[in-house]
Amino acid sequence: MKHLVISVIGQDSPGLVDTLSDTVFQHHGNWLASSLTQLAGQFAGILQISVEEQYEAALITALKSQQAFHIHVVDGNETPPAEQTIALTVSGNDRRGIVNQVSHLLGQNGINISKLKTETKSAPAWGYPLFYAYFQLETKTEIDLDEIQSQLEQLADDLTIDFD
Questions:
Q1: CA distance 145 to 66
Q2: Is the full-model pTM beyond 0.85?
Q3: How many Cβ atoms sit within 10 Å of the Cβ of residue 24?
Q4: At what angle do helices 53-64 and 16-26 cross, to 10 degrees?
Q5: Which of these, 17, 40, 95, 98, has the minimum number of CB atoms within 10 Å of its CB?
Q6: pLDDT in tens, 70-122
Q7: pLDDT at 84
């Protein structure tokens, strides 16, 4: 069984997920995991598909022939589970560089970002947008969360850092 990781982007319109899922189904693929979203009028996402090797080429050809999408396919592989999974929430006044600074600090500490969701929300009483980032982190070893939190809080006075 082959595992494929497929990135997809295209102009958002009704029925795009149906088209993708039908193509996968019709070519003997199994939809395992995905993260799909609409951003600025575009539909974007990433999928993990399993398929028997004899159907792989036909599935990839069928996916890439879809006119509504730009598709990129790579081989996936099994990864060993992390020893520790941590949820991190960062919030604060929106400004350039928050994701850059946080991801840099995490990388320097050997922490892998397995998922990241960000958004800005209007703060009606404040007059400027607030930024929120939701990280799922994985480490292969135990880390000192208090030390990481201290380092993250030093990035800016207006950031709030929460771990779960």
A1: 45
A2: no
A3: 21
A4: 150
A5: 40
A6: 999 999 986 667 788 899 999 888 888 899 999 999 999 999 999 999 999 88
A7: 86
Report the phi/psi class of residue 139: left, alpha or beta, with left for phi > 0 and alpha for psi in -120 to 50: beta
Whether the Cβ atoms of residue 145 and residue 135 lie closer than 8 Å to each other: no
37: closest CA among 134, 119, 98? Answer: 119
Sequence-ordered alpha helix ranges (H) in 9-140: 16-26, 53-64, 98-108
Alpha carbons 24 and 26: distance in angstroms, whole number: 6
Give residue-wise pLDDT tens across range 8-52.
999 999 999 999 999 999 999 999 999 999 999 999 999 999 999
Helix, strand, coil percent values for the chain (each to nearest 5):
25, 45, 30
What is the Cα–Cα distance from 129 to 121, expressed in whole angstroms? 6
Distance CA 116, CA 114 (A): 7
